[in-house]
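Weekly structure sync - notes
Attendees: PM, LS, DV (DV joined late)
Agenda: review two folding runs queued last week.

Item 1: First target. Sequence and structure tokens pasted below for the record.
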Amino acid sequence: MDNQMKITGRILAINDTEQISDTFQKRTFVLTYAEHPQYPEYITFALIQDRCSLIDGFQVGQNVEVSFNLKGRQWQSPEGQTKYFNSLQAWRIEPIAKEGAQSTAQENTAQQAEESAPAPEDDLPF
């Protein structure tokens, strides 16, 4: 079973790296995922060990695509109760260009071309 997944969204929060033990570090960040914009989801991802720095250079509000693995584990409490935990471990983060930025750039180029075109003659017959 392949548990590698991808999701796109906007970075809502970036947390500091936590040193959990002498040999383990973890960093989390939150992505706003809006498949239905009226009902956004807030999804926490974990970066572990040497991947904690993957989020460096990204900013809150930036649109990204996150590649991650879905992880799950079982834990037995001292009282004998079994609990289950899930985590999303990110292993790649890539910036996503806004579609609006591309169309705005195209519109600006078209507008500049119109402005630099010679003015039409006023000797039209009508």
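Item 2: Second target, run right after the first with the same settings.
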Amino acid sequence: KQLKVPKAEQKERLNNLLSLAHLEGHDHLYPGQISGGMKQRTAVIRALACSPRVLLMDEPLGAVDHQMRQMLQEELEAIWLRDRTTVLMVTHDIDEAVYLSDRVIVLSTHGGKIADDRLIMLSRPRKRDDRTYGDYVRKLRDVLKGGYDDRVSPPQDERKIIPLCRTGEA
């Protein structure tokens, strides 16, 4: 409504997003009537409803089961391929980071310093059973096992640096 999208387009967009999140037929329910996973999926589609140019996501799929998580990751990738929305996502799931990201930044536990900054140079759509995909997952797992030391690794490609802001900074 705020974007002054015509009613018919609003309804079509809503139906497409409900279908995307496998929530068809649940559009009449109140938040107290749906599961945690359904609430998580609702939050994702609500963020996508206005077709943002930049989407900030903090553990967007944390409350869904493994199968739904992988299915929604595939749907998010399809949306990204279609719309090319810039997404900045926080996740603790290494596989999710590799699957959805073009760049992964691992922060240290102390001081939030950059422990690793890695470009994910894989074609899309991503294939989890690809050997190179597995290599990225293993390398990031090794970084995490390394105890998040305070080393700062330079970006692999300076042209891809994304400015990150703390809350309250412009």
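Discussion on item 2: Strands lie at 54-58, 86-90, 103-107, 114-119.
Action: LS to circulate a short write-up before next sync.
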